[in-house]
Design brief:
single chain, 268 residues, alpha/beta, Lysozyme-like, 2 domains, 5-stranded mixed β-sheet, 29% helix
Length: 268
Amino acid sequence: MSYYLLDHPPASPQFYPSRNSTPSYAVGVHTSEGPTGPGSARNLARFISQRSDPGSYHAIVDSEETIVMVPPDYTTFSVSASGYNSRTWHICLAGRSADLSPDDSNTQAMIVRAGEAIRALWTLLGIPLSNAQWIGTDALNRAGLFCHGTVQPWDRSDAWSTHPDQARLNELLANAINLPTPPTPPTSEEIMRRFIRPQSSPNVYLTDAGLLGKVHMKSEQALKDASWTLTQSGIPILPPPAGSKSENIAGVAVWVVSDPFADAIPTL
């Protein structure tokens, strides 16, 4: 991985290549209070490399780019409040806090990028993503999230510590860190299907393996079409149980069941 401040040595000190204290790897969230939009993260990185006073971050994001400034085990000069620089990790959204809006596409894109960077950091360090909670000054003790202005309220309000939509912005970043849990794939039994016909009726139905519902096949062509579609989709069609009564209708094996059995399956 390339680190901007190692590739572009700063004009004045902007980091220590170590930590003086055991880090919690809580994440401090900042805004640059400057221009936003494409290119603004790289412009901010260039400014930091050229500035004569301390002020830096581990990563900077705009709507289109993420710039990693230094390795995670380096100390950046991000917060004046005591203890935070040596224990925590810092990311900056290029833009002004007053211009952030949870409904703005630029804000949303920056927050998604920030979430990706935080997720990558915590995953690398083995920190559970469930730590994506806003913990304020407890950041000195455990992993979590905090705004710069929350721990340094006497002269800072970034990233959105006093923003009227603070709660929604907090939620957006927490959600960006915690990827949605993928749905549990259906078991083979759940996707299996079979065809049945009540003993005293000519109607044929498609039902699931668990017999939770049935769909009427209104014609032999509908039966053939359903069978073909299931086969092409790789969905198994169960044969009638061994020893049961069955018949072949339009080339499809159909299980003939008692009327009460069929009636007990809801028609969908």
